[in-house]
Amino acid sequence: MSTLMRAPKECGSWFWDLEETAPPGLESAMETADKMAGVLKKQGLLFPYKLEYGWYVLNSGYTGMRSTLSVSAPLDAPDILARLRGSRPIAFPDAQVDDVYVVGSGTWIDATGNPRREPRLVELSVCSQPIGLSATLAVHHDIWKWYDFSGRPHPEVYSRNAPRLAEALRELNSVLGVYPETGEPTIFGVATELGIDTPDPYDDGSGPDVMDSL
To answer: Distance of CA 136 to CAs 30, 122, 182, 187, Å?
Structure first.
C-alpha cells in the first residue's frame, strides 16, 4: 500500500542516450536494464518484480498492445528474453518490443529514520528500438525535494533520501559511460545533474504549494 503522495508528472527525470556506447536491440536493452537495476537496488531504490512493455511494428507504428511479465534477477537472463519475445501478440506477428519499464518497489526513509517500502519509488525504462538504445529514470515523490508538495521544508526526509538518489545517479553515469540529459521541468520539480533543484524560498520560508495539482 502506498504511503506517499505521487505526482502525476515527474518531479525529475534523466535520459541517457546510449547510441554510441551500446548496440541497439532487446538483448542490449535488457543488459542495460539489469545493470541499472543493480545500481538502484544497491541504494534500496528499486527491487524489480515485473516488466511492462508495449509493441510496435517497424514502419507501421505502435500496436496499442501492452504486456506484463513477472521477473526476478538477472533481467537479461536468456529465459526472460525468450519470454519477452514469446509474449508477442498473435495479431501482430512482426511486432517488436517497445520501451520496457522495470517495475518494482523501493525503500524510502521517513523523518524519524524508519525505512518504508513504496511501490514505484523510481521509474526505470529502456528503449530497444533500432534507432538506438536509451534509458530513462524518473521520480514522482517529494522525498527527493527540500520542500514537500505543500511547500513545507522537510529537511529530515530530504537528508535521508536525496543523497541516495544522488549517489545512484553518479554510479549510473559511471556504469553507462555517459552523462544524462535532464528531463523537462514540471510544476512538481526541476531535475539537476544529481537530484531535484531547490527553488528560492518565499518570505515565510516556504516553497511552492502544488497540492491542488496532485
So the answer is: 13, 10, 10, 19
* Site of grid cell 511494428: 57
Which three three-digit cell numbers place residue 81?
528474453
Residue type (1 letter), 140: H
**102 vs 95: CA distance, rounded Å:** 20
Looking up cell 528474453 gives 81
Question: pLDDT tens-digit profile of 147-178?
Answer: 999 999 999 999 999 999 999 999 999 999 99
All 3 cell numbers of residue 14?
A: 534523466
Cell numbers given for 57:
511494428
| Global pTM value | 0.95
Residues 51 and 126 sit within 8 Å (Cβ to Cβ): no
What stretch of H or E contains 133?
Answer: none
Residue-by-residue DSSP string for 134-151? EEEEEE-SGGGSSB-TTS
Distance CA 4, CA 143 (A): 9
Can you list the alpha helix ranges (DSSP code H) found in 43-176? Answer: 78-86, 155-176
H-helix or E-strand spanning residue 25: none
